[in-house]
Amino acid sequence: MFEFYMPSQLCIGKGALEKLKQLPMEAAKACIITTNGRSVKKYGYLAKVEQLLKESGIESILFDKVQANPIRKHVMAAAQLVKKEGCDVIVGLGGGSAIDTAKCVAAMAVNPGDLWDYIGDGSGKGMDPSNSSLPVIAIPTTAGTGSEADPWAVTTNEETDEKIDFGNRFSFPVLSIVDPELMVTVPKRLTVFQGFDALFHATEGYIAAAANPISEILSLRAIELISKNLPLAAADGKNLGARSNMALASTISGIVESISDCTSSHAIAHALSGKHPKLTHGECLMAICLPYYEHFLEDAGERYIKMAEVMGEDVKTFDVKERPRAFLHALERLMTQCGMRHIHMSQYGVNKNRAREYAQFAYDTMSGLFDEDPRRLTFDETVDIIEQAIV
Asked: Are 134 and 145 in contact, with CB atoms under 8 Å apart?
């Protein structure tokens, strides 16, 4: 038995931003959540959103302090602003950090206490919110997290370095506008990191214990789209065809996250970037992917073969027993095609001598994801993955 719950209205494609004029709810005042970067202002995306809201009769205010790795303090500050200003809808404009923050703000604007009261892992209190969230509109400007199509929102407790997800049935955006024209200005490096984040949502969702017939179909389609289009989008950011396919793939991968799950690869990555906030999520996932997937060659062999095939590998050129390894070859080839075969986490202070500490932190903060692996990793195997990944 499995469930499919996807309550978000998804508007996907070139020019989709104009759909903001046709909001599916009555609202008077919006709080637009963005990062502290300059891109949404520099390229006019923020001004366009503000104008479209105005044309819909909706006043807006701005909270633009969100970091690349969002933190609890900013969630609570934005929630206070929302309550003070009487906002009745939250708009997340930007990458996953902005949209994730918007989801958390939407919950904390109508619930008492602190965000960490409602976090289920680590030092969180695991309380259930007493009230449903304010409606969220997600407008991604990157193709990576799939946050526009799932209920999950990752934040870091800056006091403990814990990077943990929050989410419930009320956290889905009511409207997600996925317009690839907002993504053509993303630099190559971030395009690649974000694209691999989307890829791993699909690959992890495909091998996860929670995988089901619908998630499996969607996973393979997302993997195929990303493998074909990420090198093109990285080489030419203005390639709207490639950007459109990456935007679609990212959203599909977000749905996969909703109906399947991520695996311990994400737990490890969150632990590392929780301790080293300048390390981007996608970059970390790329660094650990080969040693991580190496550990499940015998456990998920048939699924590895299917993923390799949709990634364009001719698996028949491999010896029968070695065919699952074609998936690892496909991952390595894709990183090479994108010009980022080698990821050096050590430049962010990640230290191989702390591998056991990082592994323990992953277990302490997101232990449930280890249960989604094809088989549960031992602690020493987790340490080994981290040590191999640190260059």
From this structure: no
